Amino acid sequence: MLSFTARRFTAAVPALALFALLAAVAAEATGHGWAEALGAMVEALPLTVALTVPALAMGTGIGALLGLSAGLRPRSLAGWAGMLLGGIGPAVPAFLLAAVFAALMTDRSFTLVLAWTALAVAPAAQAARVARQALDGALDGNMIDGGAIFAARGRGLSNKAVLWHHAVPLGLAPVAGGLRSPVITVVAGAVAVEGLFALPGAGRLFLETMRAGDAGTAVAALAGLCGLTVLLNAAGAVLHGWFDPRFRTA
Amino acid sequence: MRSPATDTPWHMASRRLTAHRPAVAGLAVLAALALAVPAAPLLGGGVVADALSAGQGSLAFALLAGLIGGGAGVVWGTLAVALGQRAERAMMSLANRLMGLPLVLGVLLASGLAGRGLGLLAGMVALTAAPAVAVLTQGELRSLLRREFLTAAQASGLSGRAILRRHIAPNAALPLAAAAWTALPRALAAESFASLLGLGLPDGVPSWGGQLATAVRLGDPLAVAPPALLLALSLWSLCAIGDGLRAAAGGRP
Amino acid sequence: MSTPLLEAEALSIHTGRDILLDRLSFAVNPAEVLSITGAAGSGKTLLLRTLAGLPAPGAWIEGEVRAQGRRLLVTQDGALTPHLTLGAQFAELLAHHLGLDERAARQRAVAALEHLHVSAAARRLALYPHELSEPMRWRAVLALALAAEPTVLLADAPAASLDPTLRARLLDELAGWARETGAALVLSGRPEDGVTGPATRALNLDRGRLTESTPPTETAVNGEAPPPGPPILSVRELRVAFPLGRTWRGEDRWLTVVDGLSFGLAEGEILTLLGESGSGKSVLARAVLRLVPPAGGQVAWMARDLATAPPEAMRRARRDLQMLFPDPAAALDPGQTIGAQFDETLEALRPDIPAAGRARVIGDTLREVGLPDSVLTRFPATLAPLEAARAGLARALLPGPRLLVCDEPAATLSGVERETFLTLLLELRRTRRLSLLHATQDADTGLRLGHRALVLLSGRVVEEADCATLAADARHPYSRALIAAAEARRPALHGDPPSALRPPSGCPLRLRCPRARDYCAQAIPPLDEVSPGHRVACHYWDTNGSDAA
Asked: In A196-229, which positions are buried (b, 16+ CB within 10 angstroms) versus exposed (e)?
């Protein structure tokens, strides 16, 4: 597992180096020093990380739980919530929620909470959908992952053990495996959130400098955002490997 | 017992599509929008009518860019399969890498630096959708090419060209259409995203993203609601129909 | 007489609309092995689920199931939980059922795996399910069930995906365990799956009702003497290999599937290709028809080499050479009616028949295979398995072939349907005077139908003889194992087939062979003539060992 983690993050290094190089070249070409452009990006990036990572983690976590309930206990309240959340997913991209929140926002005391909420809904919906599909009817013998869950019941394990040791990890593995699209949604959404909520992160830096015609810094900010995406994807892959050993050898 | 005439694969596929309830709802919503949006000027003024007429720009653009992107993705995936193992590996690895990046920010960069031209925007938006379509296309074609009835057709003395025309193309049509369809919601979302941030469609062209941007600038919650709801409905419908198409295509044994 | 461990009394299951199981009553005593056979869809899985106390949702159950002690169900596909190591799955199960701690569970796990002849059992406990080969995974699944010491073990189509040679041995070991420990064992499966072999009592489930099992009364048998004559098809040194990419040194790596094979086939002869899966029989069948490109050698039809034949000549040859596929429904285009595909075949292969005359040819052929004309307007997805098999046969017969290459032609059929189809195939062969090349892993069918047989292992012939000779006096341990498995006896081969990517040196069987000696690792045995027409590739074929396991 440790070597898998190392491999996954090392695989991201060439892409990161490429982005840094592109940013430096663009900054030099437009007359800025590369150090200045990258410096501005590095200064702005922590806020973007603070927006994206918690939103991604909370959204995926809550969505996955609701989706698991929908797959295993479709008639419970959480099951209904999971089905609803998974169903409306495509209708609520982060930028749309950000726009609605920005128009509704009267004072700035809840900015961060609203920003996180706007970003977290899309990953939650995706996770709910995937987790539900992964486990739909698995306890009743549907052929989920080769019928592994029903096979565990056939061996006479208690319902609780089957649920927590077999079904839940099997439902979470595809959620972790499908993290790539929520990562992109959240990073792109963060640009909209920062732009609309006037939060000084890398996304806002990207928008502002581009509107000002400062291509050098804009490319540097974009490189930072792409780098963040690549790192988050690597983290998602590690999580996938943690839940599913088959993915570790791939 | 049904008569054989209603058991054609197309009938069965459309039965599977209509059995997919979200897809039916999505079709109904899109049909309603297709009627309401051109009729919007007749409704007179008001926020709802404005939002509906802004849908013209958004939906027409999504259709244009989605078709380009979907077509490009299908060509990309098909070429990868056709050009041999090494080209396939290179082309699909490129598509996979691009899928892992926030390509929609490239749309912003292009219109921020090169100005907000319709053609450039369409091209960039199409590019955000194409890699995902390419990956789906390649997967569908690979699994189709493994199927035994193609070997049987060869044993029946058909030439490679006849097999392509009579067996591969008809069986690939629906799965590839389902793959290409995914470009439409992507294109709509990418354009709305760019227009919301003031980097999308040119100023003269009304769009839901542009209306949202105006409403946010004015801080007007009432003006936000109609374009936001219409955009949400359209995105949901397009995705639901895409799921339905996949179900319809995937049901073939 | 001891009290039964498992008892069903007037057990019925219905869905409100259909009756799925109809008043079943039976009992299984300690140390008894009951087999329940039935075709696909006869309700075996439903019955076993209900016996295990895990009924399917939406099914109404009447009557009674009484069981004593611990009941375990091994489900149809033998799934293991993918994210847990084998050791973790043993530990969890044994802690739950027997209250064992991790160390004790480990010991018991190793013992159970060794009982099923898993080598290096302790090391395998660290593996995840996906790291096990298919036979090894089945051993692990069954060992998991044995280790929990059930009093009633229900196994639904156990090891059905394995080769008969491996399956027969595994089932025998399972039955042995039941007799030793006094547990009740219920095995279910299709009649061809060999579950009746180790059973003390056999029941048959047919459309929801149980009957005492009887072997099918009518079996297809080829009673004719082999026709003499010069070969019309002759295969010389045929080689098929697939590229595996390059090594780090830049050398191409190849997976050789058919390795320098030669044989001839006379007019009207039925030649059986017998072998386990992976022996190359299916690829050989396809290479003869040039559906797989050969890497070397020659396939001559009527003294004309097909490997170098130009497209037009190849098309003319395809009129004579037709194929039956293992899954006939999958070999038909799902998007076209049967009629359209028949028409297409005739159009491509018989340009001499005018378009107006095709309908008559198609109609005649349909009557020969026993299908109504209405099938022409139907789509493949609507055909039942037997109908699909008949349709596949009709398509192959349309151009008027002289040789049928059959690759497991009855693989999708079971029981009576299977025999019906094979009888039809033999009948048509006789009336149309066809030659047959019949690839199968089932020695029973292969030897019943054929005149002569080639036994294939790792892409080579290891034994060649008349079918009658082979059935009575097979000399190669591999042939003997195939025949034993088909008769539901315990085959003498041990272990699993080696990976095709890393074949052993010398004789390809030596790692599994009961007769293997040091010399077997050094040289590949040549085909020696034992008696006229009977050749064997084994260094020790004359060692009259008992082949005991």
From this structure: bbebebbbbbbbbbbeeebbbbbbbbbbbbbbbb
Q: Which domains does chain C have, with CATH numbers?
A: 6-212 (3.40.50.300), 231-536 (3.40.50.300)
Residues of A in contact with C92 (CB under 8 A): 157, 161, 165
Are C80 and A151 inside 8 Å of each other by CB?
A: yes
Closest chain B residue to C289 measured between Cα atoms? B155
Selected residue of C44, C76, C83 to mutate for chain A interface (largest A Cβ count, 10 A): C83
Domains of chain B listed by start with CATH number: 54-250 (1.10.3720.10)
Print pLDDT tens along chain B (253 aa): 344 456 777 888 888 888 888 899 999 999 998 888 888 777 776 777 888 888 888 999 999 999 999 999 999 999 999 998 889 999 999 999 999 999 999 999 988 888 778 888 999 999 999 999 999 999 999 999 999 999 999 999 998 899 999 999 999 999 999 999 999 999 999 999 999 998 888 877 888 999 999 888 888 888 888 899 999 999 999 999 999 999 888 754 3
B60 token code pair: 């027409």
Q: Which residues of B touch A180 (CB under 8 A)?
A: 99-100
- Using the CB atoms, write b or e for A80-117: b if 16+ within 10 Å: ebbbebbbebbbbbbbbbbbbbbbebeeeeebeebbbb
Q: Are C159 and C78 in contact (CB under 8 A)?
A: yes
Which site among C73, C81, C132 would you substitute to test the A interface, given the most A Cβ atoms closer than 10 Å to its Cβ? C81
Contact C160, C82 (CB under 8 A): no
The model carries a pTM of 0.90
